[in-house]
Amino acid sequence: MRLRPSSLKTSFARYVTPSPLSTATMPTCGPCKLSFLHFRPLPVTIFTAIIYLALFIPLLIIHYVPPSPPPNGSLKESIGVDLEDTWRTLAAITKKYHPYNSRANDHVRSFLVDKINHIIGKNGNNKTEVIEDNFVNVLYTGRATVKIYFESLNVIVKVQGTGDFEGTVGDVLVNAHYDSVSTAPGATDDGVAVVTVLGLIDYFTQPNNTPRRDMYFLLNNGEEDYLNGAMAFTEHPLAKNCRIFLNLEGAGAGGRATLFRSTDAEVTKFFKKSKYPFGSSLSGDAFKRGFIRSQTDYIIFDGELGMRGLDVAFWQPRARYHTQWDSMAFTSINSLWHMFETSLSSLNGMAHDGGYTFVQGSGRKHTGVWFDMFGRGFAIFQIEDMFIWTMCLLTITPFFIFGLFYLLARSDKLYLLASSPKSNGPLPPRLELAGCKGFWRPFVAIIFSTSAVVGTALLIAKVNPMIMYSSQEAIWICLISLWIVTSWFSLKVANWWRPSATARTWSIGWISLIAWILLVVNAVAEDRLDVGGMYFTIFYYMATALALFFSLFDLFFLPPTSHIYDSISHVDPLDDDDHRSLIAPSVDHTNNLSPDEEESEPPNEHTSLLRDSSNLGRGRHIGRRPNSHGSLSIGAASSLPTLENNEDDEPSCSSSTLCASRQYPGEQYWSRYLPRYTWILQALILIPVPVIITAQIALIVGTSIAQTGADGNNPLTAYILYSVFTILILLPLQPFLHRWTRHIPLFLFFVFVGTLLYLLLAFPFSWNNPLKVYFAQTVDLKTGENKVHLVGVSKYIKGIVENNIPSSWAPGTDLECKDDPLRLGLQRCSWPGKMPDVVPGHEWKKWVSVNSTYVGKSGELKKAKLEVRAKNTRACRVNFKKAPGHLVRRVDIFDPTGKGKTIKHKNEGKVDGDSVEQVRLWSREWSRGWDVVFEYSHNDAEGSPEGFVECLWSDANDGGVKALDEVKSYLPQWAVVSKLEDGLVIGELGFVVDELKKA
């Protein structure tokens, strides 16, 4: 069909010439340059990428790098403490391994007492008292079937305060343990804490720094063996005076000291005074819910004494924890400064607090929710307040959102749900608004990218699960790259196939819905479990809801949908073919042709039907693409042309104001009325707060779990957590990804491929992140048979022994590998090893002697006595064989010299139900032994009670444990050894109580 030019103009005007109102709104445009701040690919890509980099870089620095101390001279002037001398003291106490059961432990204790006396003398403080606890012997119940007898070797320093209070307010306790494990010098576990305590004693004994409250500085001995030192302190007369505590610990080997946990929000406020606070209440929740199985002295002061306080500790990297690399070479004076500054700031608040909040029975405790902000600020909330806050957000915020939807609907501007404009008459054929076109694509993109990330994480967990041990950073990079690439690709395809001006708003809406669901989970956790570790969901939802609010507010700038109908003439509509030909290719239907333009180039039979069609460029095929119903949307019909084959360019006007009234190529016509700058505000609301809060937790969790596979933990849990936090960190980016250029996603695709190949193929351990294996040696003191045991990850431990340990190569050596009964998830390999020489000058037969004697009946029970004597040790265990006829019900321990008095702890007494299966014995004196008196139920038909004694030797300093020295010498460089039990060498000797031989 051929149309006359005049007919073309008339027909065109009938359908698409704007009404006078819209013409006034849309002035004539000529060529110009767009503003860089419009929602266009280049500015969106640059701006959002910069936001993420600006957040990630400082978070990573804070996470890995402890702050540097001021010059030592200025420290001595300001606080009177010589940090360099404190650092040198650390070298003095970490020369050797010094577990409780070692001679080096005695030397460390003597050194610390001398150092404390020197500090007190230097400061001229005659009101400070040094107490060496050599008299408390405590008997208490460990697990239900285990009794523990321990003799204290604690050192207590009492610093008297001014005491200007009316009544009792409670004293302050500062605790650290000076024993190490038998396989580590203990630089950070707990050497840095010990020298920090010395520095604090130096500070508070100076005349100008006298505290208001009395302060007790406890250096306990025996923490590594079931927290025995702290338990012994609970029976010391001074313990009842203390109401506030600060426990200093080490569960890593360097880095920053973090606030592990606190008893309540009220006491946590003291930590806020630190200049460099670091930590999250999520770690405390992990302890509370049993996800972290190891413990610190914190549980003794909190649980046994009912005190209120803080647990501050080093926590990374775990690969060096309890190994020979827990040394000064792998920590720094910066780490020492961070623990010291944090402790001093907290203690100043505690020691000078004049309130009565912490008096026993006074003041209510509130569970605290807390976290640091970039390592400089610290936020504290009560969980009750957080719950109220959570419920308000869950219930009130949706009403505001629905209220906006209602106002938009009332004003006829709810384009999000509009498919066709409202009208009072017939609409032109195949006309739509396509506002809901972008509804499903964010959800589909989230599902697609989440599936890709989780699937990749599970693939790594299947093929090379231990790679996270040394390469957790590569895991983060791999998963982050994959999520961005898959999300960008899916959104870009959707935007190419069905362009939508509402894509950003729908994406923010979906993210807000996900955050709302997470907030519901948080509310349940706060209310039912009393944990606030999901506090990030509160800030996450607040940011997403606020961004959604502003995104909906943008729609108020649009004209009512009925104006689309009002701007169209209703005279003599063309048939479908004419309409499709005329309405689809409009280039600039807001411009009226001037007479000059018409006369300058009269149309003829060669003139195109499409006005200015030479400038359609890439926008042309987009503008003519049919929608899902086979019709053409008005948005597509009004696509603006582009001057070049570049999606960042567009015809523009002589001023940025006029340029702002253009829509993006291919998107709906009405989107030209949307504000062009609010996307920046939405990005600043949506991205920073969720990313800061969530990424901080992700780094803490990721670092905490990365090396737990060596302890037998299932790596699958870790990879799931990596995936979850990857998604949470990047979700705020999704509303802007469809505008990203291809350059960053293309680069990240190659990054993903490279890191994935590395994670699947690389060897998971290195000298800097060595695999931890666990050593023990048992000797049968009746036959002389000895076995060396090495425990580790089943995939590697057998190869380590077979390929590296010479004693396992001996002819006829039987290497036995099976699941370990002590460390679930690991495998134990055993073989005959070198005989230890732990009692110099004595053959193995004379290391231990056990004499069992039947005493007689005691009511309904029988009584027997065991005399246990062992050379060159102060630790043994008595194990009773569990038999129906002879169940041990009560145990008493006596010092054979008669000098010490045993104090039975409050939870010690007759066993109801289960019998006593083991008694652990610890002596402060060498080779002295114990007298164990036990009462047992009897059944004459069942024979006599029996069991075996295990005595422990833990001193690895003088070459007595030859098998351990061999393992250290021949382990591959990517592995390191730690202790498996309390003792490195365990000598076993059986006993039977002969009831016919009465004492």
Map the helices and strands:
Blueprint: H1 5-16, H2 20-25, H3 41-64, H4 72-78, H5 83-93, H6 103-123, E1 128-132, E2 136-141, E3 146-151, E4 155-159, E5 171-177, H7 187-204, E6 215-220, H8 228-233, E7 242-250, E8 257-262, H9 265-268, H10 281-288, H11 298-304, E9 308-314, H12 333-351, E10 368-373, E11 377-382, H13 383-410, H14 441-463, H15 468-497, H16 503-529, H17 536-553, H18 562-566, H19 576-583, H20 595-600, H21 619-623, H22 634-637, H23 656-659, H24 678-686, H25 688-706, H26 715-730, H27 734-737, H28 743-761, E12 771-780, E13 786-792, H29 794-804, E14 816-819, E15 827-831, E16 848-858, E17 861-870, E18 875-880, E19 888-894, E20 901-904, E21 918-922, E22 930-936, E23 946-953, H30 962-970, E24 975-979, E25 985-992
Parallel strand pairs: 2-20, 3-21, 5-6, 5-7, 7-9, 12-24, 12-25
Antiparallel strand pairs: 1-4, 2-3, 4-6, 8-9, 10-11, 12-13, 13-15, 14-15, 16-17, 17-22, 18-21, 18-23, 19-22, 23-25
GO molecular function, one term: metalloexopeptidase activity
Membrane topology: Multi-pass membrane protein
GO biological process, one term: proteolysis
